[in-house]
Structure formats: C-alpha cells, structure tokens
Write a structure and sequence with these properties.
This protein has 423 residues and is α/β, with parallel strands linked by helices. It is built from 14 helices and 14 strands. The chain has two domains: 6-235 and 404-418, 3-Layer(aba) Sandwich (Rossmann fold), CATH 3.40.50.2000; 256-401, Glycogen Phosphorylase B (Rossmann fold), CATH 3.40.50.2000. The protein has helices at 15-28, 40-48, 61-68, 78-105, 120-126, 161-185, 187-192, 267-283, 316-319, 332-341, 354-364, 376-384, 387-401, 406-418, and strands at residues 6-10, 33-38, 53-55, 110-114, 131-135, 213-215, 231-233, 256-261, 287-292, 303-304, 308-311, 325-328, 345-347, 367-369. Strands 3-2-1-4-5-6-7 form a seven-stranded parallel beta sheet. The longest helix is centred in the N-terminal third of the chain and has 28 residues, at 78-105.
Length: 423
C-alpha cells in the first residue's frame, strides 16, 4: 500500500465543508492512500468516519468556531465579512507554517483542499504539489468575465434581456471591487501568505486552483453562466459519517412528518426557529415536527410535545426517506440530501451563500421560499398539499440519478492527473 500515490484532503472542521471532503476520501481510498488535514475537531470527526490524517492548529477550534458562529448573521454585510477575514488572517500564518513543515517531511502527490483554505495552495505550489480546490457551493465562484448572475447579493435570480445582463455586469463589478478593496487593505499579509493578487491575468480568482476546481453541484440546479476554465461541475458529494443520532424520534402512523434542520452553525438563531416550529406544530396537530440542532457529538435542549420533538442530530441518510417535507436553511449538505431523496423542501436562508442556494431551489421549482418565520405554518400546509412540488422533486431526483455518480467523476479526474491507478 505504501507505494500507492498519496492524496491529501484538507478542510476545516465544519460539517458542510468537511463532509464533502470525507466523501471524496471514501472513494479515493479504494485506489490511493488518503490523508485528511484538519483541526483537532475535524480530525476527530474524520477518524470517526474511518480516516486518519494530520491535526493542525492545535487548540484553535474554539477560536475558529467563534469566527464563523458570531451572535448574528454575516450575510453580505461588508463590515462583518471584513472582520471575519481579519480574524482568519491571524490564524493563517500558523496554518501555513505547519503545512509547510509537513510538506518538507512528506509531500503528497496531490492536494485537494476546501475553498475556505486558499492559503494552502501557495504552500503546495512551493513544494511542487499539484493543488485542486473542492467547492461545495460553486454558485459563489465568480462568473468568468462577469457573464452570469452574481452571488452574495441577497440571492439574485436570472433576469432575461438586456436589462438583466446590465444588472449582472454591475453586480459582478461590485463584488470584484469589494474583493480588490479588502485585498488592498491587507496587501502585505496576503502577499506573505502567497496571494499577492486577487485575480490572475486571465481574470480567474487566485483563491482557487488554476488547474481544477471541483464544483460539487449538479449543473441542472445552477444558473446559466460562463464558468472559469478550471471549474468542473461533478455533482454534490453527499456524505453522512456513521454514528449515532435520531434516537427516540417518534414516527406516528397515519400522520405526516416534517424535519427541521438549520445545520451546524447559527446557534444564535436556532432557539428562535425552534419556537416558531413549536407554534407551527400547535397550529397543525395532524403534522409531526422533528427539530434537529445539528450536533453530531450530542447535547441539545431536549424538548417534546404531542407532535414536536427537538433532538441533537438526525443522520440524513438514515432518516430522510421517512419525512414528507424538510424545512432547512439552504446549506449544501441538507439541500442536496433532499434532492437526492426527492424530498420537497421549504427553505429559509439565514447566512452566507444560503440566499443564492434558495434562489436556485425556488427557480428550479424544487422548494418553496419562506420569507418570515411567522408564515411557517402556512408554508408547511401549502407545501404538503402541493402535488406539483412533489412531482418536480421526483423528476429532478430521476434526472440526477441517471448521471454519473459524483465520486466516480472525481476518481476519474484524479486518475487522469496522477497517471497511476492503485490496486
């Protein structure tokens, strides 16, 4: 086994970024040696899924969690985004130094890194290691030469005609201007970390690999646009690590069941959502609601009524087929799990690219958009009685199921790059 090529897979400890990397690791481990690089918490989760690797930035998990899990939503707020960047830059020098030392001892044959770790790319390049980017939400990749609907502007949908093209050009220009301005404010730190420019001469973003960006999304869900040459839409990497979760969930014969999940972030928001779900359950006694806190390690504010339960964690692969409807925030893990199982959804975006994902789901007709939590009960009632929504979800499921599995697409690309196939 030691003569097989070594592939590093790097990701932060957050499930929405770590789980796709682990899904890639699961497939590639059949042909290659794989090594997961993450923080102590991330490596603990990787080992629970059967993978080993290297823990970096010891003792920093709490600080990292505070950066992304503040007391309010970041959304497209430029000041909040800038504050997060400043906090990240303070950590990235240590991250760079630790990975540099690792690659001096044992460089891999290929590095596949989550998009949130752009500074690992220059380290790989300096060590002669090929670097690819894994992107769970490729809607955030800028359209090449501004030709397409931009992200991070509140969830824009395509607008036809010349007016729509002008709007998109202006929106993409605003995004590029903001990125250039932030880079200018921290030019020295970015240069020291190996990213002296925001964009390459061909207009592509320097934070992503120039060789291969694995877009973990179905083309059928994405808006029409020009993708950068390195971007390959291979499909979503839906992966749920084995483990406990869902114990004690009550499924009542003859009733319809709704799962509510808002991922592993947004702790400041979950109590508010849970209260809204509890009120919806009171208004809809014929429906059973299960609220997941998204905590794989357990621990939650357990609560239950006649038709409402709050639990720590619900593994999607094990339980999703039993639900009639899912209410979620537009996180990539749950939205692709719903589409893979053909489950209708009500989406209420909270932060980051979730507004852009919600726009895509609504545009494709596979989810209903919820604007305020006050309308939750009405939205659930309408979605459960929407035969067209269920039919579109089933059709989307059939279409994507007929395409090549995403993990096989990734394996084929890796095989082509390394030129060596393991036993």
């Amino acid at each position: 086994m030691n003569n097989l090529p070594l592939i590093d897979l790097a990701a932060p400890p957050f499930c929405g970024h770590l789980h796709p990397i682990l899904g890639i690791a699961r497939r590639l481990s059949r042909e290659y040696r794989v090594r997961v690089i993450s923080t102590e918490l991330g490596l603990t989760r990787a080992r629970a899924a059967g993978f080993d690797g290297i823990a970096v930035m010891a003792g920093c998990d709490d600080e990292i969690a505070r950066i992304v899990g503040g007391p309010r939503a970041t959304r497209s707020n430029p000041f909040a985004l800038h504050a997060q960047l400043r906090a990240n830059l303070r950590l990235m020098t240590r991250f760079r130094d630790e990975v540099t030392a690792l690659y001096q001892r044992e460089p891999p044959d290929l590095l596949i890194a989550d998009l949130t770790l752009p500074f690992i790319g220059p380290v790989a390049r300096a060590s002669g290691v090929p670097w690819w980017t894994s992107h769970p939400a490729p809607c955030a990749v800028e359209p090449w030469h501004g030709d397409g609907t931009p992200a991070y502007l509140g969830g824009w949908s395509p607008r036809p005609g010349l007016l729509g093209a002008w709007r998109d050009r202006a929106g993409n220009g605003i995004i590029r201007l903001f990125k250039r301005a932030v880079h200018a404010l921290h030019r020295r730190q970015f240069a020291e970390l190996g990213l002296p420019h925001v964009y390459r001469p061909d207009g592509t973003e320097a934070a992503y690999s120039p060789e291969c960006v694995l877009g973990l999304a179905w083309p059928e869900l994405e808006f029409a646009r020009r993708w950068p040459p390195a971007c390959q839409l291979v499909g979503p990497m839906v992966f749920t690590p084995p483990g406990r979760g869902g114990e004690g969930l009550a499924f009542v014969p003859g009733k319809r069941h709704v799962l509510v999940t808002f991922g592993t972030h947004s702790e400041w928001f979950k109590d508010r959502v849970a209260d809204a779900v509890r009120r919806a359950a009171e208004a809809l006694p014929e429906v059973v609601f299960h609220f997941s806190d998204g905590r794989p390690e357990g621990g939650t504010k357990t609560a239950a009524t006649a038709n409402f339960q709050r639990v720590a964690y619900v593994p999607y692969d094990d339980y999703l087929p039993r639900y009639d409807l899912v209410i979620h925030h537009g996180g990539t893990g749950i939205l692709y799990a719903c589409l893979r199982h053909g489950k209708p959804a009500v989406v209420f975006p909270v932060d980051y690219d979730q507004f852009d994902q919600a726009a895509r789901l609504a545009h494709a007709g596979v989810a209903r958009r919820l604007r305020t939590l006050a309308g939750l009960a009405d939205a659930v009632r309408a979605a459960l009685s929407d035969d067209g929504l269920r039919e579109r979800c089933a059709s989307f499921q059939a279409t994507t199921a007929a395409s090549e599995p995403p993990e096989e697409c990734v394996a084929a690309l890796v095989r082509s790059r390394l030129g060596t196939r393991g036993a």
